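Notebook entry, structure prediction.
Reason for the run: the old model in the group folder had no record of what sequence produced it. Starting over properly, with the input documented here first.
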Amino acid sequence: MTITTYLGNPLLKRVNVPQNYTQEEIHEYVKCRDNPIYFIKNYMTIVNIDKGLMKFDLYPFQEKLILGLQNNRFSIVKCPRQSGKSQTSLAFMLHYVLFTDQKHVAILANKGATARELLGRLQLAYEKLPMFLQQGVAEWNKGSIVLENGSQILASSTSSSAIRGYSFNLIFLDEFAFIQQGMAEEFFNSVYPTISSGQTSKVIIVSTPNGMNHFYKMWTNAIEGRSNYQAFEINWWDVPGRDEEWKKQTIENTSEEQFRQEFECEFLGSVGTLITPGKIAELTIKTPLSRKDNLDVLEETIEGHNYFITVDVAEGRGQDYSTISVIDITQIPFKQVAKYRSNTISPLLFPNIIQRVATAYNKATVLIESNGPGGEVANILHYDLEYENSINESGVLSKLGIKMTKRVKAIGCSNLKDLIETNKLIINDLETISELTQFIVRGKSWSAEMGAHDDLVMGLVMFSWYSSQPQFKELNDIDLRTKLYDGQIQQIEEDLTPFGFIEDGTDEDGKYVSEGGEIWQTYHQS
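New structure, fully documented this time:
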């Protein structure tokens, strides 16, 4: 007896099984091959949350998207939650591997389990196809399938090593905005050679927004014509059944902010950010004039201008980032004009980079956070490299830089909020803005949300703290205490000093303990 099924699965045929086509089947096969929308609407099976198994009756916007994916090499799709975006992309991929030979497809998601679930949906649809439309199956498991025509699909998490060394004709990235910022960049640096190696290879990026991150950058570049990606935007009202009454009910069951991000697809970021979401949305991103060795230059040095540099130092072990922010303080508004960011630079080598950047910007004043390895970096810069324009703590020459205490951070965060929201400090760097979208209240302080970074933001916090100190006036004849804050700094110091923090004198890092929880809570929610 000839075995015609794959591993006993009656819904799949194995390779090298002859198919005797009727005239009607030949006619249907050709129609499906030449028209993906006809194939999907007549033969693609999906699971509907209310109706169970059913044919995929495409909405008008889904038909338009299918044609867009077919006609463009690079596609990026911004869409609301539960709009059928992933299912539509899977339908296109099923047609792609069935009717073209030797096509290699990668389904990638922020989690490996999510990618395998997507592949599972495609496998279900495949099993429901009539045998005359199927290819014979050579391999079939939870992570991949290989078909008789040489086409195959792999499911994996989106990481820099996920598909390194492979060649793919189509890469599908699901919910790409939810990939961590650093991982998203590493991924594209890793896979771009694969993408660019062919003339017809395709990339499909689909996501709901999640702050101003790498997806935001790619979306903005696409709609402004700075890349080859074709942008497709799906609105919540494009989905049948979603009207104003549905919107009202959804907001009542969630929140206005959540609806704006998940259904109106605004790039709002996290909830409870230091800078209000509305203000973050107003910030504009500038394409760097140059990018080299982790240094992004937004504006060239201007002769006669005064520059201020803040430095946050990490261990250089691939986790937190060592950062440099260069701020033009010549006049108000102040402007961030360059930034450096690396999580691999050794603290022993970092001072040389700081010196080169600071010297290039008119021998800028340098403020280094001296916690941890920062103290060593500050000493090397000042004593070994003999860079004199570095700030020491409270006038004590032996203590270079500034300790990031609760007191410094509290005042710095308050000032940063005031500077940005009143347009006194202009931020145009993508990665800095991305960190601001995830810099949130956590307990009684501000920091990056879980899994995110705040190294660039902490540089701005240091600058904002120093801008309220009397010494700042000596740099540019601008007294922010009277010109900008109108007594706010004095009030904060009065709140913090007698009630908020008492230095116990025992913590070697100069940390403070709080005895004014009510004041903290009020302050951090203001």
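Summary: The chain has two domains: 5-14+22-234, 285-478.
The old model has been moved to the deprecated folder.
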